[in-house]
């Protein structure tokens, strides 16, 4: 329960500080990412032109880089923004959306790893394996592998996550049916969320924006990653409960996720957060 209290404390800091979170994200989910950043209590800016990214990131408390919809113009902007953030000590979170789906996408993800010191990397198991250097299959931007809570492979995936964190010298957040968050030494699993969340485009991107929001309010990158993931999981669960009770669908689910992030509080984090060491 102590870790749940720490998450609640960081949420309070987000709402007190209202950190500016600079996003270089994809155009499929940019509006969702902006809205969930506002809902948690932070402030989003979505500037991606190379002529202003260094100035904009200089004003921010955290930088989110999301490679969901790649083009050569924004790739260079991502690299410039990331380098400036490093120079100023501003934390950077990477969402390597679809890494492994095409050679270009994999190459861009690795260029970012090579040129930017990352505070957190959040992705699904397939994307993280690609970053580590393991050949794997992806389905567009979706994971081709699923690790369940009762899977014999869960212990193996935990050790893999630690190895990636050590190799890349960053916090790794692998999201799925069971979420794994580690800095290479300490490791947590989270069992919040609902499978219906995969039926809404952008829930992963929104989770990364939540991590960025928490990064902007504190100095513990592991806690920030954990907080973002558990917040999104709880919101997804509660949203699904409303959808089922009202016999609605995935359009309502997305709206309810935003509502639940906006209403998220200490009591909910303490009572519903399924975080395990």
From TrEMBL:
ATP binds at residues 122, 175. It is an enzyme of class 2 (transferase). InterPro entries: Hyethyz_kinase, Ribokinase-like. Its cofactor is Mg(2+). Keywords: ATP-binding, Kinase, Magnesium, Metal-binding, Nucleotide-binding, Thiamine biosynthesis, Transferase. One of its GO terms (molecular function) is magnesium ion binding. Substrate binds at residues 46, 202. Belongs to the Thz kinase family. This is Hydroxyethylthiazole kinase. The lineage of its organism: Bacteria, Bacillati, Bacillota, Clostridia, Eubacteriales. The gene is thiM.
């Amino acid at each position: 329960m102590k870790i749940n209290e720490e998450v609640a404390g960081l949420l309070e800091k987000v709402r007190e500080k209202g950190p500016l979170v600079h996003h270089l994200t994809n155009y499929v989910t940019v509006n969702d990412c902006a809205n969930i950043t506002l809902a948690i209590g932070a402030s989003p800016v979505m500037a991606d032109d190379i002529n202003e990214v260094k100035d904009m990131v200089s004003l921010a408390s955290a930088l989110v880089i999301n490679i969901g919809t790649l083009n050569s113009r924004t790739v260079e902007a991502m690299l410039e923004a990331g380098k400036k953030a490093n120079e100023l000590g501003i934390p950077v979170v990477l969402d390597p959306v679809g890494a492994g789906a095409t050679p270009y996408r994999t190459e861009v993800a690795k260029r970012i790893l090579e040129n930017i010191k990352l505070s957190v990397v959040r992705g699904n198991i397939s994307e993280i394996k690609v970053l580590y250097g393991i050949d794997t299959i992806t389905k567009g931007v979706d994971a081709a592998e699923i690790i369940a809570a009762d899977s014999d492979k869960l212990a193996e995936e935990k050790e893999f996550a630690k190895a990636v964190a050590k190799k890349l010298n960053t916090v790794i957040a692998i999201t799925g049916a069971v979420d794994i968050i580690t800095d290479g030494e300490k490791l947590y699993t989270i069992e919040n969320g609902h499978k219906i969340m995969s039926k809404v485009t952008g829930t992963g991107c929104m989770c990364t924006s939540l991590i960025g929001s928490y990064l902007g309010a504190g100095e513990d990158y592991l806690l920030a990653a954990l907080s973002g993931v558990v917040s999104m999981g709880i919101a997804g669960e509660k949203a699904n409960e409303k959808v089922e009770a009202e016999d609605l669908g995935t359009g309502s689910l997305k709206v309810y996720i935003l509502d639940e992030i906006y209403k998220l509080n200490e009591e909910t984090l303490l009572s519903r957060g399924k975080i395990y060491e």
